[in-house]
Amino acid sequence: MKKSVFRSVVIALTVSAMISANAYADNYVTEVAGTDAAAASAQVGAAATMSYEEKMAQVAAVNGVNSNMDMTAINQAAASPAEAMATGQKMESVNGMSVTYQMATGETVVLDGITIASWVTGNDGNVVTVDQNQVAAYVQGLKDMYDSKGVQTWNSADGTVKTLATSYGYYIDPAGEAAALTADIQSLQSVVRQPVYAAVAAQGAMPQWGNTFVEVDISSQHAYFYQDGTCVWESPIVSGTATNPGRATPTGLFTVNYKTTDRVLRGPIGKNGKPTYESHVDYWMPFNGGIGLHDANWRSSFGGDIYVNNGSHGCINLPHDRAQALYGMIDKGTVVVVCD
Description:
Elements: H1 5-15, H2 21-33, H3 37-47, H4 52-63, H5 71-77, H6 81-92, E1 99-102, E2 108-111, H7 113-119, E3 120-124, E4 127-130, H8 132-146, E5 151-155, E6 161-165, E7 171-172, H9 174-187, E8 191-193, E9 197-199, E10 213-217, E11 222-227, E12 230-236, E13 252-255, E14 260-266, E15 278-288, E16 291-295, H10 306-310, E17 316-318, H11 320-327, E18 335-339
Parallel strand pairs: 1-8, 10-18, 16-17
Antiparallel strand pairs: 1-2, 3-4, 5-6, 7-9, 10-11, 11-12, 13-18, 14-15, 15-16
Helix pairs in contact: 1-6, 2-3, 2-4, 5-6, 8-9
C-alpha cells in the first residue's frame, strides 16, 4: 500500500478528533493535489460537495486500497470519522500481516500478507470477508506437504533402516484449521502458532512414536528395547508360526496393555471343551489382545527359522532371562513395534 495520504489523514484525525468533515476534506485534497495551488483550489471546491463516503472512496483510490472494501459499512459502524478512517486503514493493511506456522517437523511456514490480501473479497462492517475456497486450498496444501505419509522409519540396532506402514502421526484438521486461519485473518494481527491437528504424535521426528519402544523384527527373529534412543536390551525370539495364517504374528504399532507374573496362558476352547493349550509363564507382557511377550521355558532354542513351521500361537517367545530383564524395564503403555 502507498503511504502518504491515508496515513497522514488518519494521524491528523486521531490527534484532533474535533476536526469537522469539511476540514478533513480540505486537508485531504491539499494532500492529493500536492504543491499545485491551482489544482488544490479546484479540488477543495469539489470536495466541499462530496459526501463522507465519497471522500473515503477517493482516499482509498489514491492509496491503492482494496476496491472490495465497503467504506460506507465501515463508516456506519464507526463512532466518528477518525474511527472510520482508522478502521479502514487497519483493514486495508491486511497485506502487512502474516500467519507463521510452526510445523511438527520443526520447519516454519509463513503465509505472507500479499497472499492474504488477495483472498479478501470485501467486508461486513468492520470484519473482512475471505474467499473460503482460497483458504481451504491453502490448508489442503499444508496437509499434502506436512501430514504423516503412512510410513514411519527408524534406525534399527541391527544397522538397517526399518519401516512400518501405519496411520500413526500428525494430521491437520481441514475444517478446524480453515476456521482458525479465517479468524486469524479477520483479527488483522500477525500470529505464530501450530496448525490445528486432528491427530498428533509423540514427536515430530522419526519415529514419531518417540525414542523409547520395543522393536520386534519378524524376519530376523530378534527383538530390541530402545530407551531414549539407545538400545539397552536385545534378544533372539520365536514369533507366531509363519506358515499358519491363524498363528502368524501381526505386524503393526501397539502398546503394552499391562504386565504380570506367574500367568497361565490358555488357547481357544476345543471340541472337547478344554483349552487347546495351557502354558505357564513367569513374565507376561501383552500388547495386542492375547498376543504378548513372554518367557517360553519349553523351548531350548530361539531365533533362526524356527518360527516358519514351529512358531508360537502368535506371541513373542523369549528366553527366560531375557524376558525377566525386559519385564523390569518396560511398563504399561510402552510402544511395541512389530515389523517384517
